[in-house]
């Protein structure tokens, strides 16, 4: 069937969606690739980053400043949910757990996302500042990870990179517009960048796990992305005429999400995300 | 007149008409309209609103107030003339095999 023969608004059934086939990386390493303990932990970090952010952006639906932006944020959330599904599915192969087991049945200390992803949506400017920093980071990360020696991670990264490219563009456009808009939008954008900046540092922390995996070409050393990240951020913020907090007074959050230590914001987010699955275990609809 | 968003509390973003090309070789077709603060954001909003089910490979946006329309009250004057002139349709030609999109 050529593309022209598909009615884009035709009937969509659950069968046709065939959810299991949507995993990026499915079959990249042959059917049933199983992650090692190290790779599973690494995939869990990436998957948790994506899932927590997807949940956050989903909260904007029906609350965004304009209808068009509502859909834009919803689309981005769904992209991230797709990345999370692929990554958590792969992470679960090590312990025989499903993506849903990992999403709904882990408590706060078992989550491995970095702190920036769990910071509250705040106003629209705060959400845009968070999007701008994480999408810039994720684009560089997935770009490098797409040449990972682990074929499943490489395939997931290659697909995710293209989508994150748009997320980065979307956030950049808004940083520039809010910064160059009205006095009020500019004030809010400056505040949002200053509030979010302390959580950027954690994204680039190396530890034993990533050093081990990076030496085999499986993982990307977060610290190796910093220079490219700074270059892009500096460029956009210069155009927006926004200065980053600098000097000895600039606060940097310690981080600890990769070890299961979280800020007070993750608990309520997980509670809302997990309550239905926990009240009705195994329910389908 | 296009307004600047935020100029007053009640103002919304200007309206844009969206045209999407579904495939190589087809022309851009009007699919709807949307609000956006400027043309760059209009293209992005169009991508999010009108191509999320694989509908297109190219997008045009046009400020709605840049479009000049025929007068709906002058239907007769504009569109009566072709009635009864079927010979203007190229129905007497046979289509070559394998030609699509005619």
Automatic annotation (TrEMBL), chain A:
Transmembrane annotation, as ranges: none
Record-linked InterPro entries: Aromatic_CoA_ox/epox, Ferritin-like, Ferritin-like_SF, PaaA_PaaC, PaaC
Protein name: Phenylacetate-CoA oxygenase subunit PaaC
Organism of this sequence: Agromyces humatus
Origin organism lineage: Bacteria, Bacillati, Actinomycetota, Actinomycetes, Micrococcales
Gene: paaC
């Amino acid at each position: 069937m050529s593309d022209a023969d598909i009615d884009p608004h035709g009937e969509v059934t659950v069968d046709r969606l065939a959810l299991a086939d949507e995993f990026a990386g499915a079959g990249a390493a042959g059917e049933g690739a199983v992650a090692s303990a190290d790779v599973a932990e690494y995939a869990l970090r990436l998957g948790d980053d994506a899932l927590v952010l997807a949940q956050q952006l989903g909260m904007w639906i029906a609350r965004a400043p304009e209808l068009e932006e509502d859909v834009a944020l919803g689309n981005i959330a769904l992209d991230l949910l797709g990345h999370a599904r692929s990554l958590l599915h792969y992470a679960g192969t090590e312990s025989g757990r499903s993506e849903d087991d990992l999403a709904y049945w882990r408590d706060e200390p078992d989550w491995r996302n970095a702190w920036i992803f769990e910071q509250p949506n705040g106003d629209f400017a705060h959400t845009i500042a968070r999007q701008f920093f994480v999408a810039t980071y994720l684009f560089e990360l997935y770009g490098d990870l797409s040449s990972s020696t682990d074929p499943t991670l490489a395939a997931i990264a290659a697909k995710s990179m293209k989508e994150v490219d748009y997320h980065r563009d979307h956030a950049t456009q808004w940083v520039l517009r809010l910064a160059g808009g009205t006095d009020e939008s500019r004030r809010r954008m400056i505040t949002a960048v200053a509030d979010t900046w302390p959580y950027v540092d954690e994204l680039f922390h190396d530890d034993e796990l990533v050093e081990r995996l990076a030496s085999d070409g499986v993982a990307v050393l977060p610290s190796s992305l910093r220079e490219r990240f700074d270059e892009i951020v500096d460029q956009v913020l210069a155009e927006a005429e926004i200065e980053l907090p600098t000097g000895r007074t600039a606060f940097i959050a310690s981080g600890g999400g990769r070890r299961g230590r979280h800020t007070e914001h993750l608990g309520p987010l997980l509670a809302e995300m997990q309550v239905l699955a926990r009240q009705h275990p195994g329910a389908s609809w | 007149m296009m307004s600047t968003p935020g100029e007053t509390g009640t103002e919304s973003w200007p309206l844009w008409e969206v045209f999407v090309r579904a495939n190589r070789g087809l022309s851009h077709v009007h699919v709807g309209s949307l609000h956006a603060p400027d043309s760059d954001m209009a293209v992005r909003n169009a991508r999010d609103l009108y191509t999320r089910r694989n509908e297109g490979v190219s997008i045009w946006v046009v400020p709605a107030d840049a479009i000049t329309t025929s007068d709906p009250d002058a239907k007769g004057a504009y569109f009566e003339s072709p009635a009864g002139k079927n010979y203007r349709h190229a129905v007497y030609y046979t289509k070559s095999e394998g030609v699509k999109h005619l």
